[in-house]
TrEMBL record:
One of its GO terms (molecular function) is ATP binding. Keywords: Amino-acid transport, ATP-binding, Cell membrane, Membrane, Nucleotide-binding, Transport. PROSITE patterns: ABC_TRANSPORTER_1 (PS00211), ABC_TRANSPORTER_2 (PS50893). InterPro entries: AAA+_ATPase, ABC_ATPase_HisP-typ, ABC_transporter-like_ATP-bd, ABC_transporter-like_CS, MetN_ABC_transporter-like, P-loop_NTPase. One of its GO terms (cellular component) is plasma membrane. It is a peripheral membrane protein. SMART domains: AAA. It holds the Pfam family ABC_tran. This is Polar amino acid transport system ATP-binding protein. PANTHER family: AMINO ACID IMPORT ATP-BINDING PROTEIN (PTHR43166), GLUTAMATE_ASPARTATE IMPORT ATP-BINDING PROTEIN GLTL (PTHR43166:SF9). It is found in: Cell inner membrane. Belongs to the ABC transporter superfamily.
Length: 247
């Protein structure tokens, strides 16, 4: 049987910031329904890789194919691509003057033309999915950091993306709030949401990742199944990083 075409193909991409070579010949495939976790030391290029996939940063070499289409071609309109590729950032970036429900409703109404009634129903359903069904009328400053990040996840899901990108979504949270966000992300993985996650939370990676990608100095050093990675079937450098994170 012919293998399924990947949802995302990253082929040898290159990226510089001035004299700094931040992505070096990076290649990665993500299949439908997979959760791929990117790990590595700070400055290794993980977040930049995500930003290139979402066309927030241009690449200088290589190619990125999303659902068989070269999304780095000049004919691609980034705002249309982002209807299919959702992204959740370290900071929540919610509109402070809108309630949780209104933050979720905004894009479906303005971009997709969804009626206010249908958008409200969708928002309430998504708030239930991210485990805060009682916070629809709360403004961001009335929510904890973990609750705000779950609203941000619901907002991204409201566009019904085919791929979700999570850029260290728990890094700005107090320790007691991290678990509630990771539980929602693990739920999405279990339901088959295709996702790429940059995180240092190895408990989540062990629980949800189909594949672990270890990056260092702009290069993909290791690409292994979650099972092989956590069983120690990796390079000495990747194992050293894992030991530091775990201990």
């Amino acid at each position: 049987m012919k293998p399924a075409q990947p949802v995302l193909e990253i082929i040898g991409i290159e990226k510089h910031f001035g004299n700094q070579h931040v992505l070096k010949n990076c290649s990665l495939n993500v299949a439908e329904g997979e959760t791929v976790v990117l790990i590595g030391p700070s400055g290794s290029g993980k977040s930049t890789l995500l930003r290139c996939v979402n066309l927030l940063e241009p690449i200088e070499g290589g190619a990125i194919f999303f659902r068989n289409q070269d999304i780095t071609h000049q004919s691609i309109e980034p705002h249309k691509l982002r209807q299919d590729i959702g992204m959740v950032f370290q900071n929540f970036e919610l509109f402070s003057h809108l309630t949780a429900a209104e933050n979720i409703m905004l894009a479906p109404m303005t971009v997709l033309g969804v009626s206010r009634q249908d958008a409200e129903a969708l928002a309430l359903a998504l708030l239930g999915k991210v485990r805060i069904p009682d916070k629809a009328d709360a403004f961001p400053d009335e929510l904890s950091g973990g609750q705000q990040q779950r609203v941000a996840i619901a907002r991204a899901l409201a566009m019904k993306p085919r791929l979700m990108l999570f850029d260290e979504p728990t890094s700005a949270l107090d320790p007691e709030m991290i678990r509630e966000v990771l539980d929602v992300m693990a739920d999405l993985s279990a339901e088959g949401m295709t996702s790429i996650v940059v995180t240092h939370e190895m408990g989540f990676a062990r629980r949800a990742a189909n594949h672990i990608v270890f990056m260092e100095n702009g290069e993909i050093i290791e690409h292994a199944s979650g099972e092989h990675f956590f069983n120690g079937d990796v390079s000495e450098r990747a194992q050293r990083f894992l030991d530091q994170i775990l201990h």
